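Request: Could I get any protein with tokenized structure?
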Amino acid sequence: MSTVSVSGDECASRALIGWWFRQLDQRRICHGAREWAVQVTAIVDEEDALWIQIADEAPRAGSVLLRLRSTASVEQAVAALNSRSQTPASYPVVINTCLPPRELF
């Protein structure tokens, strides 16, 4: 019988992924006049960011790819989903909250 060793970092990553899944999956999001339930399909934990893929219920089915800092709150994730464009430029729609604020010229 073989055994698999899981490092502390892997356990922490799995716990973080599970926590984000429980926080976002089936959460109701208001997007303009439209309300939809988030359907999390995948989460990837990188060193400094989380990538969360969400199924989109739009008439032209696609997905939303949300990139968050590992320190982001659920409220920040929900706010980013609420503020996404009604007409996506492409699929998947990428919402990157890790970008630095735009500088004023």
Residues 8-96 form one domain. The mean pLDDT is 80.
